[in-house]
Amino acid sequence: MKTLSDLIAEGVSGRRVLVRADLNVPLDGDKITDDGRVRASVPTLKALLDGGARVLVAAHLGRPKGEPDPKFSLAPVAVRLGELLGRTVELGTEAGADGTVTLLENIRFDPRETSKVDAEREAFADELAAKADAFVSDGFGVVHRKQASVYDVAKKLPHYAGGLVLAEVEVLHKLTEDLQRPYVVVLGGAKVSDKLGVIANLLTKVDRLLIGGGMAYTFLKAQGHEVGGSLLQSDQLEQVSGFLAEAERRGVELVLPVDVLAATHFAADAEFEVVKADAIPADRQGLDIGPETRELFAAKLADAKTVFWNGPMGVFEFDAFAGGTRAVAEALVKSDAFTVVGGGDSAAAVRALGLPEDGFSHISTGGGASLEFLEGKELPGVSVLED
């Protein structure tokens, strides 16, 4: 696999370099609420600019329906990227002068970017390739997608792995091929259905699996407990029961909440009480793990040598229900383990809660890509770079 360092060594002055970045940031109107992915893209872009390259960046934002939509414009991202690079970043269609960076408008405004028809994606990739002399893949958050600007264009230009992708892949290999034990995985988030594959695969690899967030209530229900009005995926109960049995068979310690914050309704100011996880009132819903569970999870993380965490423990966007997520994050900060925050809401929570990012070994920019790798799936945007 050729890397950004190889490209820089070859010389980039005056060359048009197309960089696939992941700039898919959350917006409140036109205000970026978490610029972590923009900041993560800066080192690769700066290295190319310092070498005199004519940089053209491709990225997406949100899920537009294959046509221009002002609410998904990358204009706010161009402004923030320019601030971080210390130079103006224009939205445009072609690479600019030597040592400049131009950002293409949302690549998903063209329906061919995400087309399932190979010929359509390749036609779009041909158009992108005509704009550049080399391609750098640096958007780890999309490498699990077989899309024109991620996969197809790499087959049409001299291609290189950017610094961010290289760092992320190295971390994933540490989680699968070079890990130290005990290996503990913490999974949260809303739906167990989003993580079926990764749970099945992790049960063959981990020593301990901690389950929190909305998905925990389906596990509790599968154990025969009432969960009141908590988030529940009834259609996954059989699957989850199978996970519980498989964990026991393999000797994997699967740890569920023992208490929760049970609220009257889903709101930031909802009244709540701490109740046992097996005694959630019918008119209440669990919105966070309780204080006993926070201590339990911290204890189960204390002796870990490798930890992967993906998904919040509760509705961390509401201050009253952010304590569980904070407790897990703080336990990782205190840990001597190799700790990986698996992108997505987990990474957003770390920043939203004001926790030190350098307190973790690695904070991923790609939750979906990380999970698919841990599920055992191929990442097309990485495999094509190895050709």
TrEMBL record:
Q: Where in the cell is it found?
A: Cytoplasm
Task: Show the CDD domains listed in the entry.
Answer: Phosphoglycerate_kinase (cd00318)
PROSITE patterns, per database record: PGLYCERATE_KINASE
Tell me the Pfam families matching this sequence.
Answer: PGK
For whether the record's keyword set contains Iron-sulfur, the answer is no
* Pathway in which this enzyme or protein is active: Carbohydrate degradation; glycolysis; pyruvate from D-glyceraldehyde 3-phosphate: step 2/5
Q: What class of enzyme is it?
A: transferase
List the catalytic activities from the record.
Answer: (2R)-3-phosphoglycerate + ATP = (2R)-3-phospho-glyceroyl phosphate + ADP
Q: Which residues bind substrate?
A: 22-24, 37, 60-63, 108, 145
Please provide, alphabetically and separated by semicolons, the GO molecular function terms listed in this UniProt record: kinase activity
EC numbers for this chain: 2.7.2.3
Keywords assigned by UniProt? ATP-binding, Cytoplasm, Glycolysis, Kinase, Nucleotide-binding, Transferase
Binding-site list for ATP: 195, 286, 317, 343-346
Query: What family does this belong to?
Result: Belongs to the phosphoglycerate kinase family.
List the PANTHER family hit by this protein, alphabetically.
PHOSPHOGLYCERATE KINASE, PHOSPHOGLYCERATE KINASE 1, CHLOROPLASTIC-RELATED
Subunit relationships: Monomer.
This chain belongs to the protein called Phosphoglycerate kinase
Q: Which organism is it from?
A: Saccharothrix mutabilis subsp. mutabilis
